[in-house]
Amino acid sequence: MSTFIKDFIERETVNRRNFLLATAAGMGAMAVPFAFGGGAAGAAISDPAIAWSYRDRASAYWNSIVSGGEAFVESLGKPKDSLVSLINEGSSEKSLADIKAFLAKTGGKCAIACDANDSPNARPVVEAVHDAGAYISTIWNKTDDLHPWDVGDNYVSHMTWSDEKPAEQTARILFDAMGGKGGVVHLGGIAANNPAIERLNGLKNALKDFPDIELLDAQPADWDTTKGTELMASFLTRFGDKITGVHCANDNIAYGVIEALRAEGIENMPIVAYDGNPEAVKLVMEGKLLATVFTNPHWGGGITAALAYYAATGAFKPSEEPKEHREFYGPTVLVTKKDAADFKAKYLDAVPSYNWKDFWGPSNGQIKYK
Amino acid sequence: MPRILTRENAIRWAPFMVLLALIVLFTAINPSFLSQRNFARIAIAAAPALMVAVGVTFIIVMGSIDLSMEGVVSLTAVLFCFLMLALGGTLASGGWIAIPVILVVGAAIGLVNGFIHVKLKIPSFMASLALGFVGTGAAILLTGGDIVKFNDPTFRALLTWRILGFPLMVYVAGLCLVLAWFIQAQTRLGRYFYAVGGGEELAHASGVRVQHVRMAGFSLAGFFYAIAAILQVAKLGQAESVTGSNFMFMSITSVVVGGVALWGGIGGVWNTLVGVLIVAVINNGMVVIGLPDFLQAAVLGLLVIIAVILSTDRRAVAFVK
After folding, report:
1. How far is CA B43 from CA A203, B140, B169, B170, B244, in A?
2. Identity of the residue in B38, B45, B149 whose CB atom sits nearest the CB atom of A279
3. A49-161+297-329 is a CATH 3.40.50.2300 domain
4. B142 touching chain A per CB within 8 A
């Protein structure tokens, strides 16, 4: 036998052995949280350090999340900067490394609020926190098979937002404004993003009840204003007067659509958006947008930190809470012309002060998996 | 009589032929592509990108590269909006002062870029990329991640006021293009760009102060990025820390597709104009003919390669880095 073939067989055998060992280790690791479920979280931490782990500061959304976290730490009588920002810059590796560093620095005496950047990263993050005896609440990203009640008290809660229903509601408002007939175009987010898919699905659900409305085309505008203008301009060439309504996946795209139409001198095109940013709410009040959807990131940012904090101090015991308090949908508020002024006064002009111990008041029911 | 159908002429006019071929192709599939209104839409999309691409053309002609455009455009756009709002929020109320100020700021950022590259001897690729990040970071710092809206109707006339069916900003971009051509063809600086790009040591030996030429080039590029930022604000009515995104790919691609050689010394602003139009026509045309979105990125990439193949004189190039 040539050495090449011998080496090859040897290598493959070793690989197979490693694979089996790794599989066994993996299954063992999966069993660990079940075995220690609830037990590992024992003594309460008297004054846990608080951190928020999130993507970046270049967006209104994450700024709002952080402002909520800061409002929460201020409610404890601490200064704003006692909330530690762990910015992952879109990297799951950095997200995990930062959290491990924070756990080491505080010796596990901490409460962490976190968006794990992508779904698979949630498990290693949660396990690291569990092993250190600290407490974590997550938002947005986690895999469907990871549940707080399987990990124990250290994984306090997970919150996400379902965009399908609200996007369907905005679509219905749009179709009513179109008089129940005509052509609609959809300018979407980055094609593979979950919210982009859900928001398009919402539109399609509403279309079923409006047989005289045709979805002319749906194309990604990557959540981006510039892309929104250029895509809308191209749609105008392709469909011309057939377009009688526009469904946008977020506010930024809608700003672009409005500018593309302004360039053509087209006023009064019915447009709906999503996100409830201050500028978009102003446009709703002016009648340039029919509707947008607010997800209250300020409250989300504060309450996620509060859940982890109060579980850490022992103010409540997560394992004694029902499942809808461990995995739940965040609030969505539909903003239309009729309520935009009230909405602005309530949420934007002055940031409402929330009771950070009312953990589930504005939430929206237990998460359902498809 | 000189022969028209020479090899050199074929290569010289190849990008323009590609542009015409694309227009014929898209029109054949959807005739509404060939309409004045659609050309106006393409021109609006292309105007800010053209200014960025013209700026980087000077750098590429010198054989360097500038990747700072996204950060510089974002930062100057944000500064422009803040300055306009601080000066009363309208052009008439004194806001016009913001325009020359921002152009100077753009040129100054470019000068810093050139200084870092030339005096600290950092490759232009790295120096400009890093400075671009600084620009984006500064824009985030200034805006706190929020959008700055600026909707003075007089200023927005750049988008809304049309002459012969094209918005004013298209003519402004055209004038700036003529200015760029004038610098390229009629000034000593323009000729020095080609001298440096064609052979830096030779230029140096002939008495060209290469370092000064390089710094002037980067400064000029910054000036054109600032024009792009102003046109982008006119187009969108807002500025934010991501206002400059996508300009890097769009401008470098356009410059190369138009037939400006990345190794320097070849091509000029007219090539860039054709290149920008090719990319804008492809982007618009793919939606107009109803190409599924998952194919668009791939088709754009293929068309770019084809355009570069046709517009490169491979006999004149010994090797490609």
Report:
1. 32, 29, 9, 6, 18
2. B149
3. yes
4. no
